[in-house]
Amino acid sequence: MDMHPSVARVVIDVRTRALDEPFDYAIPVDLADRIAIGCPVLVPLGTRRAVGFVVGVASDSRFDNLRPIEAILGESLSRADAYDLARWIADEYAAPLAEAMRLFLPPGGTPKVVKREVDGAVTWDLVRPTVSAAEDRVVTLLDSSYQPKAGARLQRSILDALRMGPVTSGELAAELGAVSAALKTLEQRGAVEVTARRRWRGESGRAREDTAHTLTTAQRDAVEKICASPGDVIVLEGVTGSGKTEVYLRAIEHTLAAGRDAIVLVPEISLTPQTVGRFRARFGNLVAVLHSRLSVGERFDQWSLAAQGDAKVVVGARSALFAPVRDLGLVIIDEEHESSYKQSSAPRYHARDVAAHIAESSSVTVVLGSATPSMEARAAVDDCRWVSAMLPERVTAHGLPEVRIVDMGAEFGGGNRSMFSSALGDAIDAVRQRKSKGVLFLNRRGFASFLLCRECGYVPRCGNCSVSLTYHERGDRLTCHHCGHTEPTPVTCPRCESPYLRRFGAGTQRVEDEIRARWPDLAVVRMDADTTSGKGGHERALAAFEDLESGLLLGTQMVAKGLDYPEVTLVGVINADTTMHLPDFRAAERTYQLLEQVSGRAGRGEDPGLVVVQTYWPDHPAIRAVAARDAEILYAEERELRASVGWAPYRRVANIVISGETSSTVTSYSSTLGAALTENLPEGWEVLGPSDAALARVKRAYRRHLIIKAEPGAALGPFVREVLSRCPAPAGIAVAPDIDPVDFL
């Protein structure tokens, strides 16, 4: 009796909400043995052909006269839970199903299909990116290794191997990041024979041994809790330098010993080479690394290692959560509070929440690690939905660094017009004299301009939404980008009547110039978007700083994350206020997180650390919390404030952005959509707007937005999806729904 299924359910890879459910297709008899969940297929769609993905099979269909699948384009491209998870993501984040399915595709995006004719027979092939063993490809890979000396030795060995056949060389070490995948391919083809492997070197080229250290009592308790909690979400809160990475490594060892796989997410993998280095040092060739700084071919090679079961630990940024591991047992999200875990394009998922859903629907354990957990994570712990684990002390001898808060208003009033307070200037002098190192952090983020009084620190704020008002040069006005409130720009400070009311902000280039003018013999490495734009830019900057005998690392947020240099004794925050005054209800929380994270870069070695924080608002809860090493100073106030005005995590929020090149059409449709949302609004929900978006015009497109608030746990995504299907946008108008947004740009 023929037991083969005769019907395949196929999700079409087309970006439209009109094709948001699987289609039924007949399975030809000659393809029945090869059909599998997740495999790409070629199917007829109207008058054309399209690529789709099999998400289910059945023996019959409720539809008649099914059109047949024309070709199977390859083996399964994703893991077993791909469709169920993609369906949940599409519903939860009001996204087209095909967009959610794309998350599970290998690097290179939508598969390309090529028609071939062989001996009169027509076949269809799926074109995938590959890393060739050709000589020029090997040279390209080695040039991207960021380790010229080691790379040159390995390059010569591989080229000799390609010319002369298999060779034996202890110099062929899998220590060059993505190149290890190319080495593995060459080894499989017999081009090289690897007989010895050295420990992996950090991207800076300096050897870093990594061995398991004796755990503190708190670390041991955390590891035991993680290993004993399948299906739970563990919020691992540990001060900077408390050994969270060692806890991660031990939890992974336990997972591998049980025969299961692990995924480790880091906020921006190119900014955390030391962390990646520790995973490679501990687990060697079992590690695959996925991040955007690799070429498509390099990423595909790493992706394939996981798909084939050769890599058991996948380390990467947000999208690595969807890597094709065989038996996922553990997901670790390091620095879970970081906004980079939120996807900025459809589907606008948050990796933390997707991971939590995976834990709820399986036996996978999820660990959310941070020195400054998000309010969402804290609320989940308070509600007993997630489990808490604490690392309250540093593992180093000196403990946390001293924090000094400097009132820049008082400095200005005392005649100091420099961007360096006397305290920070003296601290930099001390770095120079001791020949140690320091990190200077310029707290700049986003586009927003705000007004600040240099006499008293006053910043105009919206009385409705508890956010700062954004300055608009056109029209000389202040606007709230949550509720649309607008008011004229004051001539003098409303609080103290000072005329020193100015737009705030200074760039890293200006700070660097002032450092070089005042301390001409002090080396400075600048690390910002301009100096790190090329491939390997972050690694080169960090290597330059690491190689200094003494000097300063100056940068924006990228210097606040994941740096572990024992010789850094000073952290100076040039301006703590910028994120504090962004038009965002999370501004205070983000300010505290950034300041706490960057302060943790100091005092990790034998010498004690010092943190100097310059601010015009020294009594702000975020500043006081950092100074006192007491997060509750901030969070107690934030809980009360957010609950009273209805922001996350005490209300669920959606931000729907409408954009187009015709202002009148954008305005008209945003009003129509607002009315449609309000028409059947569930009780207790509210709609704000429409109003101009914070970025009111981008690339000639006018932008307006609507905000929906609902109770926690509400089915916000399905509601938005249903309204958008009932109220489609006219031609030329784009609609971008963002469920649980991290910003309102």
Explain this structure.
The chain is an alpha/beta fold and 745 residues long. The chain has six domains: 7-127, GIY-YIG endonuclease; 135-194, no CATH class; 217-391, P-loop containing nucleotide triphosphate hydrolases (Rossmann fold, 3-Layer(aba) Sandwich); 402-448 and 505-640, P-loop containing nucleotide triphosphate hydrolases (Rossmann fold, 3-Layer(aba) Sandwich), CATH 3.40.50; 450-503, no CATH class; 652-739, Alpha-Beta Plaits (2-Layer Sandwich), CATH 3.30.70. 30% of the residues lie in helices and 23% in strands. It has 20 helices and 31 strands. Helix 6 packs parallel to helix 7 (244-257), helix 16 (587-599) packs parallel to helix 17 and helix 17 runs antiparallel to helix 18. It is globular and about 85 Å long. Mean pLDDT is 82; it is low at 130-157, 159-179 and 196-209.
Protein topology:
Elements: E1 7-12, E2 23-26, E3 40-45, E4 48-58, E5 71-72, H1 82-92, H2 97-102, E6 112-118, E7 121-127, H3 135-143, H4 148-164, E8 168-169, H5 179-188, E9 193-194, H6 217-227, E10 233-238, H7 244-257, E11 261-265, H8 273-283, E12 287-290, H9 296-307, E13 313-316, E14 328-334, H10 351-360, E15 365-370, H11 375-382, E16 387-391, E17 402-407, H12 408-413, H13 422-434, E18 437-442, E19 451-453, E20 470-472, E21 477-479, E22 486-488, E23 501-503, H14 508-518, E24 524-527, H15 537-547, E25 551-555, E26 568-575, H16 587-599, E27 610-615, H17 621-628, H18 632-645, E28 652-660, H19 663-679, E29 686-698, E30 701-710, H20 716-726, E31 734-739
Parallel strand pairs: 8-9, 10-15, 10-16, 11-13, 11-14, 12-13, 14-15, 17-27, 18-25, 18-26, 24-25, 26-27
Antiparallel strand pairs: 1-2, 1-4, 3-4, 3-5, 6-7, 19-23, 20-21, 21-22, 28-30, 28-31, 29-30
Helix pairs in contact: 3-4, 6-7, 16-17, 17-18
